[in-house]
């Protein structure tokens, strides 16, 4: 069994930097409900798409301009709209209830974790993956937004207890939440494991969890009344405020980064992120990092046969069988994959990272989940 320690510690040396606006935004709209069309003229903050999930947040234009292209994957906005933005909404004046939730959803907030009554609200303040330091940065530089986010979350959920989970030894506090230290090693930063560390239970009833990045967005919405149009990303050791839809090509050119032939560019983190298919691909709301992996550093993932080494099972913190799940997904036996623990997997990516055969285990798992979800939606419509 491999013994590798995936540290989440990061030495912050700078404040958050603003990424310059690109000439075009390439906003991913796959599987979203479009609310605009080619030729439309947008103001910064206009709604461009809604999420099909009941609690999913809407998507907004990060800049004003004209929609010059729309296809199944992307919506392209030519950024020529100036500094004009949509009018702010006073969410703090609204009472607790459906109106407030719908307003937050329309401003881009995922309200699924903020519905109903919670006994415990867990705030995940650990960096999500090695090499990504946005959570640590926000705990240092985003205190005002985080306090506003906690206040609004408490208003919606009325929890008996709010807990901020931070790396053990860190002296961090947010008004309205108690602080608990957790070992700063991956995968202990994942929501399911943070909740277990805080409550001592796995998937306890009456518990809601929200990460610091989402809490910061909630606080910014509460303070400004404006929609979410940016994401925070760790790139080459620094944290940037990046307009959603910014093409990767723009980021590389602006920062002087070079990707050679055969190199892999990953949006997100090194374990759970997704490799891009084009430098024109735009960043998403949940992309918290950008990484360039040399073709010489890590062997390429391939559709090789499983060698039954068992390393993925030994590494799995969810105690499922990734090798069997991936085989079922590979041959479209999705219901059988469920019997091996598909729905208990929280997609940490350790199985794929440690696979000696370099099988795309995480991709197979996500594929199986997506196919079962699509089947469930089709069955519901019949």
Automatic annotation (TrEMBL):
<keyword id="KW-0408">Iron</keyword>
<feature type="domain" description="4Fe-4S ferredoxin-type">
    <location>
        <begin position="297"/>
        <end position="327"/>
    </location>
</feature>
<keyword id="KW-0411">Iron-sulfur</keyword>
<protein>
    <submittedName>
        <fullName>Electron transporter RnfC</fullName>
    </submittedName>
</protein>
<dbReference type="InterPro" id="IPR017900">
    <property type="entry name" value="4Fe4S_Fe_S_CS"/>
</dbReference>
<keyword id="KW-0479">Metal-binding</keyword>
<dbReference type="InterPro" id="IPR017896">
    <property type="entry name" value="4Fe4S_Fe-S-bd"/>
</dbReference>
<dbReference type="InterPro" id="IPR010208">
    <property type="entry name" value="Ion_transpt_RnfC/RsxC"/>
</dbReference>
<dbReference type="InterPro" id="IPR037225">
    <property type="entry name" value="Nuo51_FMN-bd_sf"/>
</dbReference>
